[in-house]
Write a structure and sequence with these properties.
Length: 79
């Protein structure tokens, strides 16, 4: 038996709490969803990745001082 579904979907806002290797996110109808997860070492790596580093490191402000971030100037773009 076959079902044919015609639908209109309007999404104004959507929030996804998390994604993993085998996540399935579906909007609307589908016949069969077969979850599958494949891991492949396409880079030929033989060891673990190095530890992640913070991109910016600023010293903590002294007590009573407000936090001051560095000023980054960007050129004006004509409209």
């Amino acid at each position: 038996m076959n079902f044919y579904i015609q639908q209109t979907i309007q999404i104004n806002s959507i929030r996804i709490g998390g994604i993993s290797n085998s996540s399935v996110f579906q909007i609307g109808s589908a016949g069969i969803i077969k979850p599958a997860s494949y891991l492949a070492n396409t880079g030929g790596f033989t060891g673990p990745a190095p530890a992640a580093q913070k991109p910016f490191s600023f010293p903590a402000p002294a007590p009573g001082e407000e936090e001051k971030l560095p000023l980054i100037e960007t050129p004006a773009v004509p409209l």
